[in-house]
Amino acid sequence: MNPLNPDKPSINPRTVVTDGGSVALARMLAGTGYMVQERVLGDLTQAIKSGAPHLIEGERGSGKTALAEALAIACNLPVFYLQGMEGLELEDVLYSWDREGQSQWVRQAIASGMDLKEARDKQWGADYLMFGEALGAFEFAARTGVVPILIVDEIDKLQDTTEDMLLQLFGRGYAHVPRYGDVGERDPSRWPVVVLLSNDIRHDLSAPMRSRCVYTWIDMPSAREEVAILCARVPDASREAVAWVAKLLDCIRAIPGVQDKPALREGICLLSAFMRDGVREVEEATLRSYLCLIAKRRGDRSYLQQSMARIELAVNERHDEVDVWVEQEFGLRERGHLAAVA
Q1: Last residue of one domain, picked from the residues 218, 238, 260
Q2: Which of 9, 12, 158, 219 could form a cystine bridge with 162, CB 3.0-4.6 A?
Q3: Pick from 50, 83, 203: which is nearest to 150 by CA?
Q4: Complete DSSP assignment for 286-322
Q5: Residue 2: strand pairing partners
Q6: Do 208 and 309 belong to one domain?
Q7: Does one domain contain both 155 and 268?
Q8: Do residues 179 and 298 both lie within one domain?
């Protein structure tokens, strides 16, 4: 678990959407630099209100993980994180017992005169029960009253048996631990905000799992959304640099031979690098020096090296759509600054 900032108050996201609706939630997310799509915002609001897990699918780099992280940062909530992969066991997801600690306790109890049967019965106590990430999030919510975020990343990589471990927990808010009892929170208003992330390329989630979820497919952002996101994530970026990166992404995505098209993640990284290094113009030599931030395969790098002249031209010529949105975004920013000064 990643702890919250002890110097800041935590905010219950359910209170945010109950009192201020999706507009208030969007404002908080924007404060972290995350610009949420309207449809996704509506789905997230429904998931938070209902307590149901929010299953978010989409292409690599579409902003799935960033959304969950932005919510945690905006509300200053602790994050429980479970990475989807083959081989996860009960102890990783739900619980395990400290067997060594139990054995030591039984030996000490018998040595002090306790009956063997009584000693064995009492070893199944809270002191020796260790929680995995998923059940740990629900136990934390029940024990502290603080609503945490539970992120299950790449859930499409989970095996069927691991997915089945989560069904009761997500459906009822608690799991049964043999010899101990039920662990979790029965009141949905106190459940963790559960976000399940999937690229939808590995294992198809079961119908019982999907039925428990609020569902969202995140589309890759439009040109307008992409410009707004670049500005929000790299707030010190110049309008020229934002336009360069937005046009570059658009151009490369249109090149047929490129297998891994650059996503927003690559765009944000490239824009940050431009500002860090004080790039003043984008020529072929400039593009080649930053190619490692864009091309993530040997074949893609080769294609892009052969397309440098085309990319340079696209980056520096007018783009009817991108240039309009850049001008509008920076115009809004300048008007807001003038209003604040006035």
Answers
A1: 218
A2: 158
A3: 83
A4: HHHHTGGGT--SHHHHHHHHHTHHHHHHHHHS--TTH
A5: 79
A6: no
A7: no
A8: no
| Domain span including residue 320 | 223-341
- Write out the DSSP string of 103-153: HHHHHHHHHTT--HHHHHHHTSSGGGEEE-HHHHHHHHHHHH----EEEEE
Question: Who contacts 252 (Cβ-Cβ below 8 Å, separation ≥6)?
Answer: 258, 261, 262, 294, 304, 311
The three-state (H, E, C) secondary structure of 179-247, written as one string? CCEEEECCCHHHCCEEEEEECCCCCCCCHHHHHCCEEEEECCCCHHHHHHHHHHHCCCCCHHHHHHHHH
Flag whether 270 is in a domain: yes
Residue 143 confidence (pLDDT) above 90? yes
Domain of 155: which CATH number? 3.40.50.300
Domain count, the chain: 3
Q: What DSSP character marks residue 155? A: G
| One domain for residues 102 and 246 | no
Q: Is the pLDDT of residue 335 over 80?
A: no
197 phi and psi, to 5 degrees?
Answer: -110, 135
Q: Per-residue pLDDT tens for 98-130?
A: 888 878 878 888 888 888 878 777 778 888 899
- Residue 38 to residue 128: CA distance in whole angstroms: 46
Strand 174-177, strand 181-184: pairing: antiparallel
The residue type of 288 is R
In a domain, 58, yes or no: yes
Q: Could you tell me the pTM of the whole model?
A: 0.82
Backbone angles phi, psi at 297, to 5 degrees: -140, 155
Residue 20 confidence (pLDDT) above 50: yes
Phi-psi region of 69 (alpha: psi -120 to 50; beta: other; left: phi over 0): alpha
Instruction: Give the residue among 245, 247, 243, 242 at the shortest CA–CA distance from 231.
Output: 242
Strands 54-58 and 129-131: unpaired
CA distance 155 to 194: 12
Q: Are 82 and 100 members of one domain?
A: no
- Residue 183's φ and ψ, nearest 5 degrees, are -130, 130
Please give the mean pLDDT across all residues of the chain.
Answer: 90
151 and 100 share one domain: no
